[in-house]
Amino acid sequence: MTAPSRGLGRIGVLVPYTNTNLEPDLASLAPMGVSIHATRLGGYDLDAIPDAGQMAGLGRAEIEEPLRLIAGVRPDVILYGCTSATLAHGAAFDRMLREQAAATAGAPVITAAGALLSALAAIGARRIGFASPYVPELNDRAIAFLAAFGVKTVARAEVATPLGNHDQGALTPEEVLALGLRASNRRAEALVLSCTDMRAVEAVERLEAATGLPVVTSNQALMHAALPHLGLSPDVVRCGRLFQTATAA
């Protein structure tokens, strides 16, 4: 008997080594027959606050060996599972990392920051409310990254005190929901919840119902962007209004 997690496609994932939520989210979103294969990324201090400097350092960290390892499962697509590591550097760096990683691994590579942009393009949103567990300086860089692609942030919500690497992942879906609600604005066309280690996927349906806006999260956007590489349409997944739209080219 063929196991339900095999046969339709393979997604490789590069995961920051303290991240506890990206893999469970992707497993919950993956269509039957799609398997998830992950390897860990280092390059940062787990005991330090993940500020703009630390995330920029992660973006610069060597990933040739993790790419070689994940290429061993012959994935159809590889997801770079840290949003802030590339948006901390800007659009040109995000593109460069994606292209160089794809050449090294021999498979298409999608960054989490790039997936957010693809998702927003798919739903036609140019004005957003933005929420994350990041420190304010990193939020500034995230908003500037999105602005470089014509996405204007009309409202933002931040956590009250800086969170450590494990603290970001420990936010409950209810706390994430409250954070997202604070980013809601009548001028926004969508809400963006950025961070692959935040339990935002579990809050999507409630946040959309409460605000009337489509919600885009880092992990949800990664899966949405991966599906075309598996020959699958977005509507095979149920997680908010994003999956009712095709992936943007």
Detailed description of the structure:
The protein is α/β, with parallel strands linked by helices and 249 residues long. Helix content is 41%, strand content 16%. It contains 11 helices and 8 strands. The protein has helices at 22-29, 52-60, 64-71, 83-87, 91-105, 112-123, 136-147, 165-170, 173-182, 204-211, 218-226, and strands at 9-16, 34-41, 77-80, 109-111, 127-131, 152-157, 190-193, 215-217. The strands form 2 sheets. The chain has a 4-stranded parallel sheet, with helices on both faces. Strand 1 (9-16), helix 1 and strand 2 form a beta-alpha-beta unit. Helix 1 (22-29) packs across helix 11 (218-226) and helix 6 (112-123) crosses helix 11. The radius of gyration is 17 Å and the shape is globular. It starts with 8 loop residues before the first strand and ends in a 23-residue tail after the last helix. The mean pLDDT is 93.
Q: How far apart lie the N and C ends? A: 37 Å
What sort of overall outline do the alpha carbons produce when their principal axes are compared? globular
Strands side by side in the biggest sheet: 2-1-3-4
Largest sheet: 4 strands, parallel
Structural class: alpha/beta
Helix proportion of residues, in percent? 40-55%
How much strand? 15-25%
Number of helices: 11
The strand count comes to: 8
Q: In sequence order, what are the helices and strands, one letter per element?
A: EHEHHEHHEHEHEHHEHEH
* Overall mean pLDDT: 93
Poorly predicted spans:
none
Kindly provide the radius of gyration, computed on alpha-carbon positions and rounded to a whole number of angstroms.
17 Å
